[in-house]
Specification:
globular; five-stranded mixed beta sheet; single chain; alpha/beta; 14% strand
Length: 211
């Protein structure tokens, strides 16, 4: 009688962890989880945390601090690991500039990395397809996006198709927007911006983008 094969699962030698919490419950988590699923990296662990219904910047940052502390206690956090908060600008800045600045300061003091889109994450999607340098509302942005992605919905999975082959162009366009903000001496989180989001995406796709 043949003996059953006792196959060992391949072990992962995790070199780096990237912890991400997003304001949105659909668009951003779906995007980052899709990158993770496409990468299947044996050395990079991408952890996308639920925001637990608390979507203001301060709560997102505190969620990351809490999770990172837990990982440190369990000796599962090393010097290469990073924690990123991903949220929008306009709505929170208009609601309370004081709370906004308090959240930004809290993140800096705790070494939480910030990837901020203004007015919303769909700007990142749009600049995969075209330049955009003018101030814009979320509704107008989604209308422009529908020219490239008909019947766009927040729950759509857009990575790897159609976004993956356009990622380098999006990073270049985001850098151009950042350059415009700097030349005009505006706040780095002004509308429009994808502040440091290209840095996070480049970190996730480091091996892919160097091919």
């Amino acid at each position: 009688m043949p003996r059953p094969l006792n196959r060992r699962q391949p072990s992962r030698n995790i070199a780096q962890k990237i912890l991400i919490t997003c304001e949105g419950s659909k668009t951003e988590p779906i995007y980052f989880k899709s990158i993770r699923n496409d990468l299947r990296s044996p050395t990079l662990k991408i952890i996308v945390l639920e925001n637990q219904g608390r979507t203001d910047p301060r709560s997102i940052i505190e969620r990351l601090i809490e999770e990172r502390s837990q990982l440190k206690e369990n000796q599962q956090w090393n010097s290469k690991d990073t924690a990123w908060a991903v949220f929008d600008g306009d709505e929170h800045i208009e609601k309370s500039l004081e709370n906004w600045q308090s959240a930004i300061n809290r993140a800096k003091s705790q070494k939480i990395q910030l990837a901020i889109t203004n007015p919303c994450f769909e700007l990142w999607y749009l600049i995969h397809f075209q330049d955009h340098f003018a101030e814009i509302t979320g509704d107008r942005l989604r209308n422009l996006l529908e020219k490239h992605i008909p019947n766009y919905e927040k729950s759509m999975c857009l990575y790897p198709n159609p976004l993956k082959p356009l990622t380098k162009q999006a990073i270049q366009r985001a850098d151009q927007i950042a350059g415009q903000i700097q030349r005009n001496e505006l706040d780095e989180h002004s509308n429009p911006c994808c502040s440091r989001l290209p840095e996070l995406v480049s970190l996730l796709l480091k091996e892919e983008l160097n091919k």
